[in-house]
Specification:
Strand content: over 45%
Low-confidence stretches: 1-20, 59-73, 152-161
Largest sheet: 11 strands, mixed
Mean pLDDT: 80
Order of helices and strands: EEEEEEEEEEEEEEEEEEEEEEEEE
Structural class: mainly beta
Oligomer: single chain
Length: 293
Amino acid sequence: MKFLRAALSLLGVVSQPILAQFSFTSTVEHNGVPMPQSEINLKPFEPGTLGRIKSRTYDDSGPKIGTTTLRRVKRTNPTANSNNWCGSVQTTTSSNQIKLIHGTFQHPTCTQRPGVTQYPQAAAAWIGIDGDSWASALLQAGTVCKKREKINDSCKQINNSTRIVENEVWWQWVPSGAYTITNIPVVAGDWFDITINTTSSTTAIIRGYTYTVNAWQGATLARVDADWVVERPYYGSTLAGFAQFTQVWFQNAYATLTSGTSLGITGAKQYQIPGGCASSEYDNSKLYAAVAP
């Protein structure tokens, strides 16, 4: 995703155009109570990019998942390697498009990856539509943990002895910018239940952890890829350090098609990040992603 500096008014029904046409409105709740607009802090996800898959290669040998890292591999799916995606992508046809995608996952604990000194380090868990076989657009929503070096405000120097972890919710309609709602509290272990409902190829409603986003005039979706992914973000044109993260299980994972039928995880393509992350289907509604051994 590319993160743009643009303003947004929240709650009410006020929207701010992004990239001339793309617009959205948002509402936020905390403990079931709507937040006043003045208390909502929405900002561009910074720095970096998340989003479309990069550098795919196919590997039929299967994911290399250690028995001590994950519970077990129950099924064998087609696999592919990527620089930045780790998870399941289920693809349908243009004649039977994805209308809705759903998934539940637990926000992971992130720590410094052993032997990696590159900063920042990050890992993002999300669900989305398109971005794989259809690379022109991607609609996605999830959480991210970012481990970065703390900056001393008085002298703007990096304090090498102190690094902080930031946990945030975010969403994006690629190629427009991604946004985080920084005053929604997120801690490791929180459960997130996210639904993306497309009402057309350019309009959608995202319902996530205490927030709702109504978006319209986004880049045209083909609505052919259903994605459940842990991602290694880019910072600018360079991959961020990939944070060490606790195992992420996507549960109750499904996509509803325009025909009324549903897609699950069975038979989905499993993306792996060699040396970084391995993923596998558990059953038709569950998959997991974990640090590769």
